[in-house]
Amino acid sequence: MLNESKVPIGLIVLVLMLISFDNYCQGYRQFEKMYHLHYENENYDSALYYLDILVANNNQDQWLYYNSGFIKMTFYDSKLEEAVEDFSEAIEIKPEMTDSYLARGIAYLRLSDYEKAVTDFSRVITINEDYDSIARINRALAYTLSGHQQEALDDYSILLEYYPDNVDFLMNKYSCLNELKEDSLAQRELDKAFKIDPGNGRVNLMIGIDLIQKRKGSEAIPYMSKAMEIFDNEEHEEIVVNPFFYIQRGSALFFLGEDERAIKDVEKVLKYFPNLAYAHFLLYDLYSQSDKEKACISLWQAYKLGMTEVFETLTAECGQP
């Protein structure tokens, strides 16, 4: 007779566990494939669906939360707060995760929570010097939008130490100096930018605006027209990074009497930055001749967002707030 030997129960359990684990891994990899497939095909709802499944099965992978937050921030205006939560989860898992701090800072920037945006960008600068430039660019924007011109100026000055011929940084520094009433220093930056790139639309625009403010309108027109010619031949898609292109082009169109095009540019800015007081004030100027109701709404928004100097105009033209 054959000797019958019993298979140890522990071995049976181990085999079953390995089979179960193998099935789990295969299923997990399949969900990963489905996520990547839908993301590459720009089907972001489905991509988020599979990310949720992956997170439910592995809630300690910081990149799953980061990817979820990135999709929500980039492709869904209504999901910015959810994106912040996802980036925060990623940071909780890996506190030194530079990408998540940077992305959360940009989400805060979009939400007009400038103080928190500055905090995250500052954290990026502290923990990863490879991200110093991109963090400073965004922090300077947050400082500018929140009215902290001196702090923005400091960041642009450092950026220009890294990139001395960067016309965008020169022009942003020029704008900060203008706001700080440092006219001679501002003019120096504007002249430097023009010398580096006389065909730059923004530089020509600001020269034109400067001449208009000095009551030299006839001298300003060639610069304004040149700026519009350049702008119309350029592609500017990164409004989230720099909304000032649309503000400045809108200003140029306003000066050139093309109000309808100017309104489209300013409204595009307000879609992303609804709390930008100057944009509301510019809309007031644009609507003042054609639609008094919209003009008053825009002026009221500018006042509520901190432009207290418009109060007299608001009461005189629109009645008591």
How is the secondary structure organized here?
Elements: H1 9-40, H2 44-57, H3 62-75, H4 80-93, H5 98-110, H6 114-127, H7 132-145, H8 149-162, H9 167-179, H10 183-196, H11 201-213, H12 217-232, H13 244-255, H14 259-272, H15 277-287, H16 292-304, H17 311-318
Helix pairs in contact: 1-2, 2-3, 3-4, 3-5, 4-5, 5-6, 6-7, 7-8, 8-9, 9-10, 11-12, 11-13, 12-13, 13-14, 14-15, 15-16, 16-17
Describe, in plain words, how this protein is organized in 3D.
It contains 17 helices and no strands. It is mainly alpha-helical. Helix 1 packs antiparallel against helix 2 (about 45-55) and helix 8 runs antiparallel to helix 9.
Which terms would index this structure?
mainly alpha; 17 helices; 76% helix; disordered N terminus
Number of helices: 17
Structural class: mainly alpha
Cα Rg: 27 Å
What is the straight-line distance between the termini? Answer: 103 Å
What is the strand tally?
0
Which overall shape is indicated by the principal axes computed on the Cα atoms?
A: globular
Helix content: over 70%
Which regions are unreliable across 5 or more consecutive residues at pLDDT < 50?
Answer: 1-5, 11-25, 237-241
Q: Give a short account of the largest sheet.
A: none
**Overall average residue pLDDT:** 83
Proportion of β residues? under 5%
What is the N-to-C succession of helices and strands?
HHHHHHHHHHHHHHHHH
